[in-house]
Amino acid sequence: FIAGMGSSSGLPLSEILLEFLLHHLRWIPVCFILLPLSFLYDHATRLRNRIVHYVNSAPKAHNRKVAVIQAEVREWATGDKKKKMCNARSGWSTMSFRYPLYKNTSTLISTNTLIDILEMDEEARTIRVEPMVTMGELTNYLLPRGYSLPIVPELDDLTVGGMINGCGVESSGRKYGLFQHICVSYEIVTADGSLVVAKKGTEDAESQGLFYGIPWSHGTLGFLVAATIRIIPSKPFVKLTYMPVGGFKDMTTKLQSESSVAENEFVEGIQFSQEMGVVTKGRFSDGPPKNREMNAIGKWHKPWFYTHVEGIGKKQQEVTEYIPLRDYYHRHSKSIFWELEEIIPFGNNVFFRWFYGWLCPPKISFLKYTTTGAVRRIYERRHVLQDMLIPITDLEKGLQVFHEKTEIYPVWLCPFNLPTCPGFVKQKSGRNVLYVDVGVYGVCKKDDYEPKKTTRELEEYVRSVEGVQMLYADTYMTREEFYQMFDSSLYEWLRVKLNAKEAFPDVYDKVKKEARF
Fold this sequence. Notes:
Layout: H1 2-9, H2 13-24, H3 27-55, H4 58-77, E1 85-87, E2 107-109, E3 117-121, E4 126-129, H5 135-142, E5 147-148, H6 160-165, H7 173-176, E6 183-189, E7 195-199, H8 205-213, E8 223-230, E9 232-233, E10 237-245, H9 248-259, E11 266-271, E12 277-285, H10 305-315, E13 319-324, H11 325-329, H12 340-343, H13 350-356, H14 364-369, H15 373-382, E14 383-391, H16 395-405, E15 411-418, E16 433-443, H17 451-464, E17 468-469, H18 479-485, H19 489-497, H20 507-511
Parallel strand pairs: 1-2
Antiparallel strand pairs: 3-4, 4-8, 5-9, 6-7, 6-8, 10-12, 10-13, 11-12, 11-15, 14-16, 14-17, 15-16
Organism: Pristionchus mayeri
Protein name: Delta(24)-sterol reductase
GO cellular component, one term: cytoplasm
């Protein structure tokens, strides 16, 4: 096996052996160093946030932090402008697997202090937050108060800024769309240091244009310093029904039918093989009947959620459970979808879960910071991390394409409605169109897999069906191909209007493969 790896990669056998050992023994530092550090960091952060909320210091501190950012931007604007600007967040702390190279040659602006929830308005049903606030922090804050975001991307460490400047999708997307579609306004510092508010539904054409232009722009129009987001009343539980299905056609049909049911708050699919998958539908609930028990899937000793779903799928029987709402929202966090198995192969073992599971999961940023060059080369050659958004009418064919190119399972399937509106991601039908996020995460074992060639083939297919690629992932498209996939008309107008061209790199130059390692 090792000799085969050596011949396929062109590296000396000794180096391949080292990579193999570092990769397969990575669980040792993860279990004994990163898991305890992650646990302590999370608890320290929660304590800090409780103190901030108790003394209500965030709003005043926010004004000071924004003033510092404005001063730094104005200092850049009065200088020689040889370097473009970007945020000062460390490359290892981002959720993308890659390290951004452009930070090494940019002027760094101190946006990494924007980590607080600012205010909740129950009457308007909105919450105003800084961009580094995470999904985990928001559910911890909102759920005890009887509210929730309409869309909660499931990994705890995903940030509001990442979901706006990038993209956020969840199983409630069939009802609410993408994360950007639940936002009411954005506050950004522009290239001259001005603080601008972009609002939805305003009569100011420039403000409304900026509102639609910010999503997917990856910080290339200005620095996001706050966002106001819708909140909705919630209940403490989700009544979740698991519905086993067969192959790709059955999965597509079931996802389409359940996504059209107005009462379904959540719809999700997981395809475990060519022959078997499971669709889940969920609704808010006050709790299980007296003769039923809840399934607290978020407890440390519970099996990883996807393995629980797979077990139900193999029995080919429909099952209904009552799950605490926060456990449902973060159902994939504990196992980082199914990626943690690659790092801790025995992580779902019952003894590990009972005695060590309370420390899980390791923080993705810590994993990224401690990834050695040797392990990174293995990921480079074999690891696939892609989310492709395609019309659900093309899902059956799309699943077949992904099978032929990668043969990676499970595959995450999340339907969402994409409305007709201006922006970087634009469909022009004049109505809502049901799309699905096809999430492929894992190690490709196909002999003919070649990262660049295979990814370009997948990108070509996605463009052909008028789909888009999430830009946290490796992008091998040329500039021309990239702007065939995305609509740059509003984006380019805003870049000129805001004098952003000399201040910030073009979005393609930030996300292309050559800009990351």
